[in-house]
Structure formats: C-alpha cells, structure tokens
Amino acid sequence: MAERMTQTQLIKKLAESAGVANKVAKQMLETFAATAVTETKKNGVFVLPGLGRLVRVERKARMGRNPATGESIKIPAKKVVKFRVAKAVKDAIVPPKKSKS
User: How confident is the model at residue 2 (pLDDT cuts 50, 70, 90)?
Assistant: First the structure.
C-alpha cells in the first residue's frame, strides 16, 4: 500500500498550486477545517464542494446485546457525524460496474 499524504505534504501541494507561501496555505487549511466543524455543529450539515458533505445524525436509543455475556443492554440516543461522499468523487475513485444489456 502506498504511503499516506501527510499534512505537511498537503500544505506544500496547496501552496504550490495556489502560488502562496506554505504559512498561508496552512492557515487556509486550518480555517477550512474549523469552518467545517462549526457549520456542522450549528446547521447539522457542511458541504465540501467537489468532495461530499459532513452530516450530523441523531441516533435513536435502542436495545443491544453484550457480546461477552449475551445480556441485553440499553444503548442511549446520541449524535454522530457521518461523511457522505459525492457521487462524482465515488465514481472517479471506484468506477461503477457496467451493466450487461
């Protein structure tokens, strides 16, 4: 498996692409991330143009089972964050299978 891109490498790539200093690119990336968090928290959704959207979802309380003992347990309601990938991005990364006609 290939190496993952580090934050430093991403900042360098953004800086080169935009023609700005690394410090400016880092500030832009940090502001973008902070904005995504605050908007998702406030509105329940944040669209990342060209990538997808962050969505806050309410999970209902439910009954579960302790796998070790088999005992029933109550799982409380909670909020979770999901990332929904845009169809264009998904199709670019994993092309859809062609159906037989």
Answer: confident
pLDDT in the model for residue 101 = 56
Beta bridge pairs of residue 62: 75
Total-model pTM: 0.74
Q: Are 72 and 63 in contact (CB under 8 A)?
A: yes
Q: Does domain 45-101 have CATH number 4.10.520.10?
A: yes
Q: What would the pLDDT profile of 39-65 be if each residue is shown by its tens digit?
A: 999 999 999 999 999 999 999 999 999
Q: What are the domain boundaries of the chain?
A: 7-43, 45-101
Return d(Cα 52, Cα 67) in angstroms, integer.
Answer: 35
Return the SS3 of 70. Answer: coil
